Amino acid sequence: MVPESYYLGLSATLFSIGVVGVIVRRNPLVMFMSIELMLNAANLALVAFGHRLGSPDGQVLVFFVMAVAAAEVAVGLAIIVTIFRLRRRLSVDDLNLMRW
Amino acid sequence: MATAAFVLIAAVAVGSALGLVVRRNPIHGALFLVVNLGSIAALFLTLGAEFLAAAQVIVYAGAIMVLFVFAIMVLIPGREETGPDPQRPTRLLALPVGAVLLVLLVALVAGGGAPRAAGGPPAGGVEAVGRLLFTDYLFPFELTSVLLLAAMVGVLLLARRRA
């Protein structure tokens, strides 16, 4: 049986990679995918905690995280597509206004 | 045996996550992310969360990543990050920041030890999750449907021509 702390270590690693991805990349789509990576790292930690505590509550929480992630991706991609349609460029450095 | 499987899957997960961050082409990044999501689904299976493993493949690797690939195709890949980065020195600060974050998180994990619940591994599986979802978590579950509806209406509004 693999101890849960291994899973938590892997989760921490994936989360850190996701943070670096959000900071380093200029393409908002790739930043978005890095955010998905971080969400998944958190999901893995939640399932590991639930396994450790012997309760299915962690899995239910992950279910909600997935639903929120689906909604977030839909809205975020719509915003990115709208911005691209108006500016014909896709770099977060160009985006410094909260309006168009 | 279980540890070897874990190490193998974890290596795939970390490698594909690094691929997502490093590769310049967003399509490659999306495919790396699919591999990463699949390996996390496998880890869910090893933790006894069969329902989540299936949901991970269907919702994430299926629906969400298709949306991503579709958006990347619409937005003409590979033309966004060409040319020199004027803020490269600032961006490279992310590496030490990420390293420090990793050290802190691992120290946090290694430091604390929650007491193991009595009664061994969970009597989990689909049935327990479903029962909990429709009893204790019924209200958040219903709120999820409202959230998804709101997201759908918002997307329709945003994606309209002549927004």
Q: Kindly report the CATH topology of chain A.
A: Helix Hairpins
Number of helical elements of chain B: 7
By oligomeric state, this entry counts as heterodimer
Sheet/helix structural class of chain A: mainly alpha
Note the beta-strand portion of chain B.
under 5%
Radius of gyration of chain B: 20 Å
- Architecture of the domain at 1-77 in chain B, CATH level 2? Up-down Bundle
What number is the mean pLDDT of chain A? 87
Characterize the main sheet of chain A.
none
Count of individual helical segments of chain A: 3
Secondary structure: helix percent of chain B? over 70%
Describe this structure in words.
The complex is a heterodimer of chains A (100) and B (163). With 100 residues, chain A is mainly alpha-helical. In chain A, 78% of the residues lie in helices and 0% in strands. Chain A has a single domain, classed as Helix Hairpins, CATH 1.10.287. The radius of gyration of chain A is 17 Å and the shape is elongated. The mean pLDDT of chain A is 87. Chain B contains 7 helices and no strands. Chain B is globular. Chain B has helices at 2-22, 26-46, 50-74, 88-92, 94-111, 126-133, 138-159. Chain B is mainly α and 163 residues long. Chain B has a domain at 1-77: NADH-ubiquinone/plastoquinone oxidoreductase chain 6, subunit NuoJ (Four Helix Bundle (Hemerythrin (Met), subunit A)), CATH 1.20.120. At the A-B interface, helix 1, helix 2 and helix 3 of A face helix 1, helix 2, helix 3, helix 5 and helix 6 of B.
